[in-house]
Amino acid sequence: MGPSTESDQYQYGDGRTGTEGMNYNWSDVIHGDRWKSPETLWIENGTEYSWKRVDELAQSIEEVIGSQDEVRVVLVRSPSKLGCFAGQLASWRAGCVAVADDGGLGQSELEHVRPDLIVSVDGDRPTGVACETHAAERFPRSRLPDEIVAVNFTSGSTGSRKAVGVTRGNLQALFRCRDLEVPTSGRLVSGSFATPTYDGWWFDTWKAVAAEGAVVCMPNVNEDVFDWPELSKKYGIDRMLLPAAVLATVVESLPGCISDVPWLYSGGERFRVSTYQQARRARLTNQFINLYGPAEATFATHKYELSDDITTGPIPIGKPLEGCKQRLADPGDRADGCHELLIDGPLVCLGYIEHGSLSTRFSADDGEASFRTGDVVQVDNDGSLVFAGRLDSQIKVNGMRVNSAALERDVVVLPEVSDCRVVQNEKHTFAFVRVDQEQLIDFSVRMRIESVVKQFSNAVKVELVDRFPVKPSGKIDTTALMSARFAKNEEQE
Q1: 472: domain CATH number?
Q2: Count of domains forming the chain
Q3: 123: which of 128, 161, 223, 274 fits an S-S bond (Cβ 3.0–4.6 Å)?
Q4: Are residues 343 and 401 in the same domain?
């Protein structure tokens, strides 16, 4: 098994344990003496950057921001993670909302936030910083509350992508959350996989930086995953966060690439028992942690540490993190012991941003920050929550209602199945089922899968695949699945 929290302490390089002695005052995090240090803070593409060098880059970005009048929302556009990170730091120092873009944001996302200024950061030197454009129509600074400092974009898995206002209080609550700390022998070193436009970025980068740790930017799986072991050993990476689909791919194909990272977090999609079992068969001894949390709640709200006695059934999403409170509401006409999950507390963001202004606040009747997730959960014997789908997981197939989440859950129970996704367009509904390559042509495997699917609907077609395409966020790309399916039909015709 992975590292034991009974024998190790949460320790930083100067001997402090846990968050003891850490100062998460916002001003100290972004202005403190740490930014004068020659110690390495950031590693990207083989180059090491000290706190001081990152600070110099941020200062040059802040100068560009300061040269413009009435700037509230700054979009920092950079192909590098360092440029996005330094841009966030600079924007916060200038009292602005930081929106980082590594090229993944489209016009619809920009319309949500309506940036006053777009700054491009080309490379890692101050000379590469330039004012790309500023808005023709200036909005008053008061259009967004002062406490908003950043924006989360939802994945769009339940519809179009939404912009969520993240406050400094949200990030400070994340920084202070002891339930997301790991034992270390020195400074915390985080392996960063998340892109700057997704909420995993806060965990990968800023939570580590707030604890005076270091960040190692990991190459994309499709670029050079073979560099991961060398980076892990050289810098002593303590933890990594990987989307469940990416983790499944690595465990299946290249388990040695993650063997030296003691703590592996999974989120964004359901973590499958089959992935965990495969990891143990590959003799991986990492501690695996399943995280849950909507983008509307900063990053994560629940966690579950996996143990070797998990052999069947869905992996729970666990219990609330420090700073998070849960409420279980009546989901309506369901009679399967399920509840809708509501989240309260300082991790809940302020609300949605539309057309450059705050449009919806997340709050309960008593005014406390609260968010209705729309997710349906069950409570297991240990008191942990188990994800059971969404309130809107009912789809219509040939006029009949089908619970797509229940269909996926029942298919994944089959021993040959690694994962399942139900995808629907205007004319067709498919159950895409991921199996091993040799089972793609195994008629008996297909028959067993189809027999389960037909219990829900004879009109849902089964499509066997040996891999799921993923988006830059690491979530499964269902649009690409459908496109590949119809492209195959055209080839066969």
Answers
A1: 3.30.300.30
A2: 2
A3: 128
A4: no
Cα torsion 225, 206, 151, 138: sign: negative
CA 86 to chain centroid, in Å, comes to 20
Residue with the two structure tokens 């966060």: 241
Q: Are 59 and 51 in contact (CB under 8 A)?
A: no
Spatial separation of the C-alpha atoms in residues 388 and 162, rounded to whole Å: 23
pTM for the full predicted model: 0.83
Angstrom CA distances, 16 to 10, 42, 413, stand at 8, 22, 45
Band of the pLDDT at 418, cuts 50, 70, 90?
confident
Percent of the chain with pLDDT strictly greater than 90: 66
Token pair listed for 299: 């990053």
Strands of the sheet with 97-101, listed across from one edge: 129-134, 117-121, 73-77, 97-101, 148-153, 163-167, 351-354, 357-361
Residue type for position 42 = W
CB of 271 within 8 A of CB of 305? no
Q: What is the separation of C-alpha 392 from the centre of its chain, rounded to a whole number of angstroms?
A: 22
What tokens appear for 399 in the block? 């006029």
Q: Report the alpha-carbon distance of residue 223 to residue 2 in Å, rounded.
A: 28
With bands split at pLDDT 50, 70 and 90, how would you rate the model's confidence at 391? confident
Q: Where are the alpha helices (DSSP H) in 388-473?
A: 404-412, 443-453
Tell me the average pLDDT across 28-37.
96
